[in-house]
Amino acid sequence: MAVQRPTPRFVGVTSPTARRAGAGGATCQGLYWTTGNPRPPVAVIANHYNVDFAEHYLAPYLAARGLGFLGWNTRYRGAEDLFILEHALIDIGAGIRWLKAEAGAEKIILLGNSGGGSLMAAYQAAAGGDRFWKDLGSRTTAALEDLISGDLYVSLNAHPGRPEVLTAWMDPSVTDETDPTSRDPDLDPFEPRNGPPYSPAFITRYRDAQRERNQRITGWARDELSRLQAAGIPDRVFPLFRVWADLRFMDGAIDPSARVCPGCYAGDPATANRSPVGIGRANTLNTWLSMWSLETSACKGAERLARVPLPSLVVQSLADQGVFPSDARAIYGALAAEDKSLEFVPGRHYFEDDEPARERLADLVANWILARV
User: Considering the domain boundaries, does residue 1 fall inside one?
Assistant: First the structure.
């Protein structure tokens, strides 16, 4: 007998705070994956700050196990430099509303994969009444107060929070944010005399300097925004250099795991750190303050996770080159849920290295979900 293959259905809806594009595109778009039953009672939704999750790798695997899977995108897919958290949460809410009203889903599972972990936690915190958002007008407030809660939360190879991951990856030896060649050799992680291996004293000084760099940019962004707005200019874009410098990329003894070291998602860290490719490489001032700033962003993981009481599963793959065992433990510890589990499994970030690993992961996630719905 032929085995039915998962089939995706295109979904496009507008958001309460954004109209359909002039060329016809819906504000929020994605693919809804099902197998056999086109209206499964349990559905997963996965979303990221800017990465396109429509064809998320887990979609066909979980659909094959009887779950609906909405690979969802907000208005910020491919537009990281314009991200504003409040509107992203509203766009996620539009996807969940579609699952309930149009797809017949009775139970909603929030899948927070990679950067999406803290985003989906922020969504659930807001849906549960955490009023951390900024006042962006009555229409935005009304939409945020009307978010539908999820039923379960899954953290999969998730970064603790957007400000946390950027700061952990930042090269603090940058002395001039307008010049990618500027450096303080005493803080340069690629200066041989500094390591690897890195001494405890260097690690402490380095981490302090990373936080200081984040704070310097925040102070400048706030002042620059005030200056521009006084002149009638609402915002501007600015570049961010050298963000592939987490000491864990070069020193496998820090937060040990089965990852390739030296290594990062972009290959060799020394080469990647000099390239224009990386998270946060371009931002508006408002986006920096909304997403990346340690001081002002509401995308910080622990603060939102503490407002997620849903039954929660935290899964961490041991060969991940950008999320580490301590990150998974921190997420697990921060979750407010009484029913929560932490699982370490073989594989890389997206389990792209091993088809059987993806199958095992799908079994783990599906069995955990189905045991609770």
Answer: no
